[in-house]
C-alpha cells in the first residue's frame, strides 16, 4: 500500500517514547513492503536534524518537515480561555503544514493516511478533501486522561483549576475527533476500551509498541547494584512521578539499604527538580538509552498520571531488567505481577519491592529473564504491524 504518515514530531532522531513508537511503525510498514511518505511537524523541543538521520531512512520515507513554534505562550494561553478551543491542540495547527499537505496530496495518491497522535487531527478535514482512502488515528494516549490525572495530583489551587480547564477542553475536542476518523489504532487495550467508552463507533484496533529482533540487546544477568529511572523531565507526568519517588519512596529504601544508589537519566533533570538527594546521581541526557537500560539496575516507573504505554518499560524488560512500577506505568503490558515485573501503587509497597529485589539477586535475575522472554514473544514489531495492516486491508477492502 501507499501510506502517508503524518507526525506531530520527527520520529528520528528518536528523543523519547513517542518518537520511538512512530519510528517502529514506519520500520514495520517498510519491512512489510509498503511505500511510506512521512510529513512531520518539527519544534524547538523536537527539531529535525537531517545530519543526525540515516540517509537511507530519508530516501525511503521522503520525509519532509515544517518547523512550528509550539512553546506555551502566555498571551495565547490567556486568549484561549475566552474561546472554545483546546490550547493543547491549537498550538500544533499551522498554515505552512497545510500548504505542504496540499502540495503532496495533489501529486501523490495514498491508500491509507495515518495521523500520529491527536495533535495532527486539525489537518483531517484538509486531508479528507484530497484523499479517498481511510484516515486512521494512531493514538499514543487518551490525551485528556493525562491532564485529568495531573490536575488530581496538583496541590496548588490555581494551577489545578487551570489543568482541569485544559483537560475539559481537550476531552471535548478528543471526543469529537473520534467520530471523524475511519479507524483508531490505540497503543494499549486499556486505551482501546476508553475510546469505545467515549462513544467511538469506528473500528478500534490495539497497536502496542514493539521491538525488532535485531534491536534486542544482549541479556544483562548479574547482581543488582543500583536503582534507575529514565525519562524526559520536560513531560509533566514524569516530573510528578519522580518527585513523588524522591520524596516518598527513596528515603524508605535508604533506611533499609543505606548503600543503595539511584541514577536518574533523561532531558532537563536539573531544570525541573531539586535532585540533591542522598546516594543519587543525575546522569542527565544520555547519548544512548540502551547504555542505561542494559546496566545492572532495577528500573523504577513511579508514574502517577498519564495514559498509553511506557516504551521504556518494554525496552527495560527486553534488556532483562527487573522493573518496579505503579499500575499506571505498566498499562498495556499484560504480563504477570511477581513474574515479569512488580506493581506497587503506594510508597511503602514500592520501596519494599525495591528492597526485596536488592536482597534477593536470584529473584531479580529470574524476573529479568522472564521479562525478556515475555517481550520477545508478545511484542514483535513486525508481527504487530502486519496484524494491524491485514485488519485494515480486510475491513476497508484495500
Describe the structure.
This protein has 398 residues and is α/β, with parallel strands linked by helices. The protein folds into two domains: 226 residues, 3-Layer(aba) Sandwich (Rossmann fold); 165 residues, 3-Layer(aba) Sandwich (Rossmann fold), CATH 3.40.50.2000. The chain is 45% helix and 15% strand. A seven-stranded parallel β-sheet has the order 3-2-1-4-5-6-7, with helices on both faces. Helix 10 links the parallel strand 8 and strand 9. The longest helix has 22 residues.
List the defining traits of the structure above.
13 strands, 16 helices, 7-stranded parallel beta sheet, Rossmann fold, 6-stranded parallel beta sheet, 45% helix
Q: How many strand elements?
A: 13
Backbone CA Rg: 21 Å
User: Main sheet: which strands, in order across?
Assistant: 3-2-1-4-5-6-7
- Please count the helical segments: 16
Could you say which overall geometry the principal axes of the C-alpha atoms support? globular
Order of helices and strands: EHEHEHHHEHEHHEHEEHEHEHEHEEHHH
* Fourth-level CATH superfamily of the largest domain: Glycogen Phosphorylase B
Q: Kindly state the mean pLDDT as a whole number? A: 89
Beta-strand fraction estimate = 5-15%
Predict the CATH topology of the largest domain.
Rossmann fold
Largest sheet: 7 strands, parallel
**Helical residue percent?**
40-55%
The overall number of domains is 2
| Poorly predicted parts | none
